[in-house]
Amino acid sequence: MGIRFRIALRYVLTLSQQTVINRINSIAMVVVVVATLALLVVLSAFEGLKSFSLAYTDSLNPSYKILPQRGKTLVVDSLQLQQLAAMEKVAAVVPVVEEKVFLSFEEKNQVAYLKGVPAAYPSVVVADSLVVVGEWSNFNDGKVVVGYGIAAALGLGVYDYDATLQLAVPKAVSNGPFSRQELSSVSTYVVGLYQLSEEVDSKFVFADLDFAQNFLGLPKNTYSQLELKTTATDLGPEFRKSVQGVFKDQVQILGQQEMNAAFYKMLNTENLAVYLIFTLVMIIAMFNVVGALIMLRLDKWPQMKILRALGMLPKQLQDIFFLMGVILTGVGGLIGIVLGVILLLLQQHFPFLYVPGTLLAYPVELTLSNTFGVLLTVVLLGGLASWWATRGIARAARKI
After folding, report:
1. How many Cβ atoms from other residues are within 10 Å of residue 78's Cβ?
2. Tens-place pLDDT, residues 81-103
3. How many angstroms separate the Cα of 345 from the Cα of each of 217, 241, 341?
4. pLDDT at residue 181, as a whole number
5. CB within 8 A of 296, min separation 6: which ones?
6. Cα distances (Å, whole numbers) of residue 324 to 15, 24, 102, 296, 400
7. Burial of 88 (0-12, 13-18, 19+ CB in 10 A)
8. How far does Cα 52 stand from its chain's mean position?
9. pTM
10. What is the DSSP string of 256-312?
């Protein structure tokens, strides 16, 4: 393989006596460089947008949620909370009460989720950093923090003590053979507005955990879920098994991907679609390599006759042209990756592209998986194109 590789490398790097051959080779190389550069940049840009979107989506999601296996509530004692907090890689754990409630303010109504959280809740989810008007407090005296979407829909203001926000929830009443439902209601004041996304801003009303339990009629040790912050977003099956052991397999454990399964599935599908589309562009670019190899075969065929006369086998002659195609695409791919890495690093550290209408730099994220994935794609497609373009050379060489 050594002599064949050296001959192939010499043919690729040296200029032909025919100008048209040199131009065809140059065009094939440039097309491979541009296609590789485009594939790496697009995948990195999509990775940046993905991370940017997940940063917002996961802002109100903990690392893990522990939910009851059956029903809507989970009874947790202090010993179980201590066992969870003592687990390796668990940074914090808090109990949470969550229930759908009916909001009413000055003849305007909306449905939202009341989320009762303890004072330590920001140690698990940085909800306090999302408050843009007012303040995140301990929600004493029945105060609440609502989303911008809820405030806009109901016309709510912060620290408006002249008008109260009414919260109502159905409660079961059994006074006879038939049970009926009545509304349990309470008045509260808004002390802060948070803003994250249009969907989330219209979803949650944050309140003190004790206030929410009293309002919903839940005992002190009864919660809707436990939320955990861990040192990693995915601790594997062993961690889940340990948590199940604390609750004797009576709970279900959700990671971030399971909390937003549809969103993650959409992102993965879009990522695959983008990769396939630009791989198609790469395949089209390889036709230039095929054309270049065919022209090189015509140009170098007289020299192949000399090598054949010197004793080189027909399969070895075919290997020379195959290696020429691999070298052509490999060098073009490496140049494209180097240029792409430089371009992406410039965008990360010295941004020159911004989201239209904003001062926000367009997010890009350079990853090793994308870089090696692009290089592998170029090598595989280049090898396939080289094989297809040179598949008949051995048969033709036998006739020399």
Report:
1. 8
2. 899 989 988 999 999 999 999 99
3. 55, 41, 6
4. 58
5. 11, 16, 21, 25, 321, 324
6. 14, 14, 71, 9, 21
7. exposed
8. 8
9. 0.73
10. HHHHTHHHHHHHHHHHHHHHHHHHHHHHHHHHHHHHHHHHHHHHHHHHHHHHHHTT-
